[in-house]
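U., I forgot to send this yesterday:
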Amino acid sequence: MILGFAAVGIGFAASMLGVGGGIFMVPILSIFFVSATQVAVGTSLAAIVLNSISSTIGYGRQRVVDFRLGLMLIPAAIAGSWVGAFLTEFISSEALAVAFAVLLVFVAALMLLGKSPKELAKRFQQETPEGRRVYRPVPVVIVGLVAGVASGFFGIGGGIVMVPAITLLLGASIITAVATSLFVMGPAALIGMAQHAFQGNLRTDLALPLAIGIVVGAQLGSHVATRIPQGMLRRLFGAVMLYGAFNMVWNAVSG
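Result:
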């Protein structure tokens, strides 16, 4: 019951920031509910699948999802998610937690200190005579692949990689990056979850209350995010990354 209520808050924050919620769920599950980070990762991915569906519905109603870009990202994200999940068999739980924290600090620095490098973004996109943005396929595939590996390996939706990459490298607005990231992460998280379930790293008794709470919170988050200034949303994203990093390091050290 407590986990379900916490999941509502997780779903709200995750949907608003364009992440699957793993940055919150993996630390909480690792510290309070399971002994191995791999199990927390697999269980987190199960809830992320429903978060993706719920958030995409919410953002889709507001017409801020770039479905064309999302469909370009999905195949590479799915392949990367399977690879990431498979690789967790070859690393210890403590090392996985530390690696997760390092990744979060890196992304937090990008979002808190950096501004969108528009000249770099222009190299990775084109515009039609009508002014419609068209993305070059190679950088899009790379973004999807890296985000997918992060999803399967760390039990996150891939948003902590995809949102800054879409914003900083592909030049999209952060609200478009948030909404599109949530659309993409569903299929990728599903593949990662399946691989973790095959490896015995899925707790369905914990995934169910997480998923229910996240679906409710995701609808609220998608409604609020479009009403927040983009600069503030970027800073919130960076702050959340630092929170997740602290929790994972604490878990690794105390464990």
